[in-house]
Amino acid sequence: MRIVICYTHISPRLVRRIQCLSERLHNLIVLEIAGSERIYPWWPEKYDVGAVRQVQLFTQPLEELSQQQIILAAKAFLEREKPDVAIVADYSRKSMRFIARWVKKHGGRTILPAVSWAGDHRRWAIREWAKGLVIRRLFDAVCASGERTQSYFFELGFSRQRLWKQFNVVDNEHFSAGAAAVQLNASSIRKELMLPEAHFLFVGALEPWKNVSHLLDCYAGYRRGGGAWGLVIVGVGSQLELLQEKVKQDQIQDVVFTGMKKHDEIPIYYGLAACLVVPSLSEPWGLVINEAEAAGLPILASNKCGCIPELVHRGINGYVFEPMDGVELVRLMHLVSSGSLDLSAMGQASRQIIQYYTPERWADALADCVYYLLKN
């Protein structure tokens, strides 16, 4: 039995998942299409997944490769390895659909680990009908990242018997231990990094759908209303200069742009923050929420984050808002920073909630799906 799991690029968020899956599926091969992705410049390195066999088709960035190049290389790989099961992580790319189609044509089974949900962006009925038809033909089962994704793929025509609720996860220990270590000397490290003493934190790509410009408007309103916390923005993207200029022109105080930070550096910023803010207009899941909860932070999150039903419990470990409702976000920022909430208890609740969402459980669900398909 040969099982291949296919990704465009192995990010640090995937390493622990793959290691856990390899402990449950002993003939696992990791197929990585490209050496990097330019949209994620903070993940440029090749990541070692341990003893698992790892095949990389190309060393150059994904954006430099044509779909035809990838298909030809993938075809050669498939003809050589002849996998019995293919776990294909991205059905939106022609090359990934080719891999699923090839395996199905040659008698194998196919699984889609999915994160999309109905509300993560605008949908059109005819396209959804066509998508459901294509995906049902390509995949024997779907491992859905949560309640919203499971419901969405049920609506696309997958039976409950072909749907596994898998969740989306990070290496909790990496963020928990990293945050705890920096908190031992938090005050001096904040001064060294020139961060505000108490602050909200944003982590992510500085792209339009992340809604950071609106976050800055809300933060400016919060400060005008007497709010005293700072705002730290970790990330890079096409809007970085625009956002920096906005802060300068609007004279918004205590906003710090840290630039790009690598996976090993991010826990430092969670450990020094008081609350994570995720204002996204579209967010299939929102792994920064996993990371922040592992570090023990309260959460303010847009209701467009797919993980809301699982990870953000209102009044327990955070609050949820409409992404363009500036009045509500300003109110919540004042509430969180007012001193009237027990933020330590909310942070502890975040730690308790995220304990269930681990790479081990992610691997358990996916392995169960594989074994089910091989027997049926």
List the helices and strands and how they pair.
Blueprint lengths: L2 E5 L4 H13 L3 E5 L20 E4 L10 H15 L3 E4 L5 H12 L3 E6 L10 H14 L2 E4 L2 H9 L7 E3 L6 H12 L2 H8 L5 E5 L8 H13 L5 E5 L5 H11 L4 E5 L6 H7 L2 E4 L8 H8 L4 E4 L5 H4 L6 E4 L4 H12 L5 H12 L4 H17 L1
Parallel strand pairs: 1-2, 1-4, 2-3, 4-5, 5-6, 6-7, 8-9, 8-11, 9-10, 11-12, 12-13
Helix pairs in contact: 1-15, 2-3, 6-10, 6-11, 8-9, 8-13, 11-14
User: SS-based structural class?
Assistant: alpha/beta
Contiguous uncertain segments of 5+ residues: none
Major sheet attributes: 7 strands, parallel
Tally of individual helices: 15
Mean pLDDT: 95
Span of the ends, CA to CA: 15 Å
**What percent of residues adopt helix (DSSP H or I)?**
40-55%
The SSE order reads: EHEEHEHEHEHEHHEHEHEHEHEHEHHH
Computed over alpha carbons, the radius of gyration is: 21 Å
Instruction: Report the count of strand segments.
Output: 13
**Order of strands across the main sheet:** 3-2-1-4-5-6-7
Form type = globular
Note the beta-strand portion.
15-25%
